[in-house]
């Protein structure tokens, strides 16, 4: 049987210091704010749902939008949650003086997540455009623009 080796107190002191240093370099719990989700570049689905009768949607159009929401919404929500989380992490990395490389990696991750969000919003509008008649799309476009502040 081998004897049990106990680390020296000097090693324990060094290891404790190293762990403390790593903890200080790791961003604190991400602090997020409501604006971290950003404003969608275009968001039409909510307006469509509130204006089904005014737009004169057919049952086929309604079914198409329902299927689209069921397919696209979970991915969109996940991306928005990722953006919020990454922004909070970046905020804390900046405030906690994390290494610049870590901050820049977070910035790149945010940019990639934002691009994915833009693409999902773009694809949604293209689905709306393909599903609605020209007249219906002009109506929803104007309703959307009227609602911008």
Structural class given helices, strands, pairing? mainly alpha
Rg from alpha-carbon coordinates? 25 Å
Count the E strands: 0
Percent strand: under 5%
Amino-to-carboxy terminus distance: 77 Å
Shape: elongated
Largest sheet properties: none
Helix percent reads over 70%
pLDDT < 50 runs, ≥5 residues: 1-7, 11-27
The number of helical runs is 6
Write the H/E string, N to C.
HHHHHH
Mean pLDDT over all positions: 84
Question: How would you describe what is shown here?
Answer:
The model is unreliable at about 1-5 and about 10-25 (pLDDT under 50). The protein is elongated. Helix 4 (about 60-95) packs antiparallel against helix 5. About 15% of the residues are buried. It is mainly α. The N and C termini lie far apart (about 75 Å). The chain has helices at about 10-25, 45-50, 50-55, 60-95, 100-130, 135-145. The chain is built from 6 helices and no strands.
Keywords:
about 150 residues, mainly alpha, 6 helices, elongated, disordered N terminus
Helices, strands, pairings?
Elements: H1 9-25, H2 45-50, H3 52-55, H4 59-95, H5 100-131, H6 134-147
Helix pairs in contact: 4-5
Brief overview:
This protein has 149 residues and is mainly α. The protein is built from 6 helices and no strands. Helix 4 packs antiparallel against helix 5.
């Amino acid at each position: 049987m081998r004897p049990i080796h106990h680390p020296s107190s000097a090693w324990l002191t060094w290891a404790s210091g190293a762990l403390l240093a790593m903890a200080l370099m790791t961003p604190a719990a991400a602090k997020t704010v409501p604006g971290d989700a950003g404003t969608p570049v275009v968001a039409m689905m909510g307006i469509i749902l509130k204006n089904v009768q005014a737009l004169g949607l057919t049952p086929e159009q309604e079914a198409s939008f329902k299927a689209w929401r069921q397919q696209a919404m979970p991915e969109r929500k996940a991306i928005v949650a990722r953006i919020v989380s990454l922004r909070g992490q970046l905020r804390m990395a900046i405030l906690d003086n994390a290494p610049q490389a870590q901050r820049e990696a977070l910035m790149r991750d945010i940019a990639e997540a934002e691009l994915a969000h833009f693409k999902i919003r773009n694809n949604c509008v293209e689905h709306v455009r393909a599903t609605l008649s020209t007249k219906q799309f002009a109506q929803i476009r104007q309703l959307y623009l009227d609602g911008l502040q």
